[in-house]
Write a structure and sequence with these properties.
This protein is an alpha/beta fold. Helices cover 44% and strands 14% of the residues. Helix 3 runs parallel beside helix 6 and helix 4 runs antiparallel to helix 5. GO terms for molecular function: hydrolase activity.
Length: 232
């Protein structure tokens, strides 16, 4: 039984946001891992003119392409990518979902920028090898049009009615120190999803960019165990 994992990054980000987790999956499985870059996103931001519909279509095309190569598809979504993952689970045959810092409620753009700066500065000071992460976030501060932020919030509102229809197994990871998505949002999501197989994991020191959290060594293996439960 071949398994594919589609990993969807967050608003104004890129595949690097989930890179530590995908690196872990590659090291511990033989699964096919795909990390598409949504329109206007990535290393260089060119977001002007792209809408929520573009980002949803990007994810759909990536899902369809992956589904042709494997027997089962798992979808991992970070922040806005978590909402897109729920959208895919509503429309396609998704085996399991992993939602990381899923932006299931309104997100403050001002807080978004503040948290990026804080994360980047901390990463830079703690470990020079994270300098690349610092440069990526510094670049985006002046490159996110207001219209794009409005599209982000529109996407969240568009997908919210689907939450109650999601019945597949799901694992939610949320940092308690997340300044962008309040941690009680994860509880709301957990309560709303109607799956009988669902887990909510809170990282006490985790911030929004949960894949760079000090607690990764705890939740990475737990999520992998969840995914391997029936992804043999």
């Amino acid at each position: 039984m071949s398994v594919g994992v589609l990993c969807i990054h967050g608003f104004s980000g890129g595949p690097y946001e989930v890179e530590p987790f995908t690196t872990y999956l590659r090291a511990n499985t033989n699964w096919l891992i795909e990390q598409p870059t949504l329109s206007g996103h990535g290393e260089e931001l060119h977001m002007r003119g792209f809408t929520a519909k573009h980002w949803l279509m990007d994810a759909e095309l990536a899902f369809r392409a992956l589904a042709k190569k494997v027997d089962e598809v798992i979808v991992v979504g970070f922040s806005m990518g978590g909402i897109i993952a729920l959208y895919l689970a509503k429309r396609y045959k998704v085996k399991k979902l992993v939602l990381l810092s899923a932006a299931a409620k309104y997100v403050s753009p001002k807080q978004l920028v503040k948290d990026f700066k804080m994360l980047a500065t901390e990463a830079y000071n703690r470990n020079l090898s994270n300098n690349e992460l610092f440069l990526r976030y510094r670049h985006k501060f002046n490159n996110v049009p207001l219209a794009s932020t409005i599209e982000f919030m529109r996407l969240v509102r568009m997908v919210e009615p689907y939450y109650k229809d999601i019945q597949i197994p799901v694992y939610i990871v949320q940092g308690k120190l997340d300044g962008i998505v309040p941690y009680h949002t994860a509880q709301f999501l957990y309560n709303t999803l109607t799956s009988n197989d669902k887990t909510l994991y809170f990282s006490d020191k985790g911030k929004h960019h949960i894949c760079y959290d000090e607690g990764c060594s705890e939740w990475f293996p737990q999520v992998l165990l969840f995914l391997k439960g029936s992804a043999k």
